[in-house]
Amino acid sequence: MSQSYDRGTIEDFGRWKEFSAGMWAWIFHKFSGWVLIGYLFTHIAVLSTATQSPEMYTQTIRSLESLAIVRVLEVGLLAVAVFHILNGVRLLFVDLGVGLEAQDKSFYASLAVSAAIVVASVPTFLAGAF
Fold it and tell me: Which CATH fold would you assign to the domain 22-126?
């Protein structure tokens, strides 16, 4: 027979409001890492068409680049990659003991710089897509 007990606030889904910047940095870093791993498998699948013939690879790339959704996903990939890199550099500095008292500010700075880079790159990625 199972017994029930009060699990407390651990299952309270409203707790996300209590997360600090450090928790959001951890969540975003893990999420971006998993997205990059997923992209790696997609990238390998596309590159594997080159083993068939160079023409098939070229045709695959051209057909993918002609889709607007692929262009939008590339912007998302850029956002994920840039944030993951900048947050990784931030974590490296924190591990080295630099900026320990300003971790929240450096996380917000990495978000802001990531957003600025992505916004500046959107015209290049979406040129000719629409």
Answer: 3 helical TM bundles of succinate and fumarate reductases (1.20.1300)
